[in-house]
Amino acid sequence: MTHCLPIRVYYEDTDLAGIVYYANYLKFIERGRTDWLRDLGVDQGALKDREGVVFAVRRVEADYLSPARFDDLLTVETALHQMTPARIVMDQRVLRDDALLFTARVTVACLSPNGRPARIPQIVRKAVA
Predict the structure, then answer these.
(1) What transmembrane ranges does the database entry give (predicted)?
(2) Of residues 15, 43, 63, 71, which has the active-site annotation?
């Protein structure tokens, strides 16, 4: 199942050339991942408080295909690629209408309070699977 999040490009998202600054795509896809989990019923704040675990980005493979500009309405798509006991790998895309602008494969690791790898809690595993 693919999660979709609409995002509007604001002036602050653009560079001097009037296109979305490359690092802002990482912010857009972060919002997509957060909303994906929220829509699946995973409250990351409560997860940290109850289970003592958090998710941290471990790896991002990104391709910038075409620029977005001020006031564009974009869609951030997020889909599960793979899940291991301690990692979730997602495929993410940013589109303007049917035009593909950006793709990424993002690996997030589940971490314990001391920053060591931890098993993904069952509640998250069930929601994501």
Answers:
(1) none
(2) 15
29-52 confidence digits (pLDDT tens): 999 999 999 999 999 999 999 999
Measuring CA to CA, which residue among 5, 19, 12, 1 is closest to residue 94?
5
Q: Residue 86 corresponds to which tokens in the numbers above? A: 């301690």
For residue 34, give its domain range. Answer: 3-128
**What's the pTM value of the predicted model, to 2 decimals?**
0.93
Of 56, 37, 5, the C-alpha closest to 123 is: 37
Q: How many residues does the chain have?
A: 129
15 catalytic residue (yes or no): yes
Residue 8 to residue 123: CA distance in whole angstroms: 32
We report the CATH number of the domain holding residue 19 as 3.10.129.10
For the chain, the domain total comes to 1
